[in-house]
């Protein structure tokens, strides 16, 4: 088993006033040659958008883009005519494919929105763009890992053009869970949203990230109540 630890304070930080963003991997003005990606996981941004502010219409292509709200609301509009608002418990996905324009806006004039923006390099280029979102049953992540993304449109959660599986779980102190990889050639990237967690003896604190290679399964132990974790199994090469 091979670990790569990314402490929360080691991330790149951008403060634009209305937008505060922590970058696990190189993004925009943050560049670290040792932190370009983890396999096909290209972007993991921890974003804060001030009340009434947001990203104007902008383009993407040939990327799978997943948004996970942590608090507040995020309004989405795109060039396909989709208009929607997502909040905690929702998962949003876009396959940018041949090209899509979209905007993201915090419609609340009093409360900020906090969300994760995740980009995954697809295994198919120039697909027809698409948009989807789902609302999770939050009880399904209590003391277990709830699948939120897979390669299969008929499976639980949203789907993307990549052999990746995402899970989210919220655990009470000393609760344990074992995760077995769907594909033993893949790697796992753990992002700890809240609390403290031990993974095969490696301890993580809030907002730490951990890349794991050369294993077929991992063991998770929550070290305090309300420990919330995002687990991303991804191919190590495209």
Give an overview in words.
The protein has 238 residues and is an all-beta fold. The mean pLDDT is 96. Helix content is 0%, strand content 54%. The strands form 4 sheets. The protein has a 7-stranded mixed β-sheet with strand order 1-20-17-22-15-13-14, with no helix packed on it. Strand 18 (197-199) and strand 19 (202-204) form a beta hairpin. It is built from no helices and 22 strands. The protein is globular and about 45 Å long. It folds into 2 domains: 12-136, Jelly Rolls (Sandwich); 139-234, Jelly Rolls, CATH 2.60.120.10. 37% of the residues are buried.
> What is the H/E string?
EEEEEEEEEEEEEEEEEEEEEE
CATH architectural category of the largest domain: Sandwich
CATH homologous superfamily label of the largest domain: Jelly Rolls
* Sheet with the most strands: spatial strand order: 1-20-17-22-15-13-14
**Structure annotation, total helices:** 0
What structural class is derived from the secondary structure elements? mainly beta
How many distinct beta strands? 22
The overall pLDDT average reads 96
CATH topology of the largest domain: Jelly Rolls
Q: Residue ranges: pLDDT <50 for 5 or more in a row?
A: none
Choose one word for the global shape. globular
Helix % is: under 10%
What's the main sheet like?
7 strands, mixed
């Amino acid at each position: 088993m091979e670990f790569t630890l990314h402490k929360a304070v080691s991330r790149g930080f951008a403060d634009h006033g209305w937008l505060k963003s922590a970058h696990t991997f190189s993004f925009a003005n943050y560049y670290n040659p040792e932190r370009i990606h983890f396999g096909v996981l290209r972007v993991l941004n921890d974003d804060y958008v001030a009340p009434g502010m947001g990203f104007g219409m902008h383009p993407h292509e040939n990327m799978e883009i997943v948004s996970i709200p942590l608090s507040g609301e995020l309004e989405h509009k795109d060039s396909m005519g989709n208009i929607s608002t997502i909040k905690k418990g929702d998962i949003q996905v876009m396959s940018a494919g041949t090209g899509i324009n979209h905007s993201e806006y915090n419609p609340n004039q009093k409360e900020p929105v906090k969300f994760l923006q995740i980009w995954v390099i697809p295994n198919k280029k120039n697909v027809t763009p698409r948009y989807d979102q789902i609302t999770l049953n939050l009880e399904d992540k209590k003391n277990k890992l709830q699948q939120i993304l897979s390669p299969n449109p008929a499976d639980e959660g949203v789907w993307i053009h990549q052999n990746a599986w995402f899970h989210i779980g919220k655990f009470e102190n000393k609760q344990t869970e074992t995760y077995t990889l769907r594909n033993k050639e893949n790697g796992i990237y753990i992002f700890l949203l809240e609390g403290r967690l031990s993974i095969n003896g490696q301890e993580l604190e809030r907002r730490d990230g951990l890349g794991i290679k050369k294993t077929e399964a991992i063991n998770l132990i929550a070290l305090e109540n309300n420990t919330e974790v995002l687990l991303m199994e991804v191919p190590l090469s495209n």
